[in-house]
Amino acid sequence: MKIDFNYKFKNLDGTDIPERPPEMASIDGEMKKKTYPVFTLRTCCVNVLTMNPTSERGKPAVELTGKEKVGRYDFAKKIYDSKGLLDLEAEEITLLKDLIGKVYPPITVGQAYKILDPHSDKK
Q1: Count of Cβ atoms closer than 10 Å to residue 90 Cβ
Q2: Predicted model pTM
Q3: Residue 47, exposed/middle/buried by CB under 10 A (0-12, 13-18, 19+)?
Q4: Which has the closest alpha carbon to 64: 86, 48, 78?
Q5: How far apart are CA 65 and CA 28, in angstroms?
Q6: In the predicted model, is pLDDT for residue 21 greater than 70?
Q7: Which of 26, 43, 72, 73 qualifies as a FRET site for 65, CA 20 to 30 Å off?
Q8: pLDDT tens, 44-60?
Q9: Is the pLDDT of residue 37 over 80?
């Protein structure tokens, strides 16, 4: 299935969600509001593929083999380098949905699932 990783996540009011909330920062000796780029499906997917999720006790939630880590890195690089639509296999979509569902809040998960698997909620 072809996926548009340029999708921009939205708040419930339709405004774009930034990668991080704005913050005050010292820029050239002055305190200025620092803003961040819009949070995209590309960023979301690259994040979940390249992080090592931990349990509540700070230990790895899942022990990945070196081969699995390389596979996730290669998949993340494929998504990161994509410019337009990217054709993914069903297994790749399932992996992304599983990882996103474990890491992100409902507003992100809901939108990501609808983009990654638009037919899943239709009977």
Answers
A1: 9
A2: 0.85
A3: middle
A4: 48
A5: 45
A6: yes
A7: 43
A8: 999 999 998 766 666 66
A9: yes
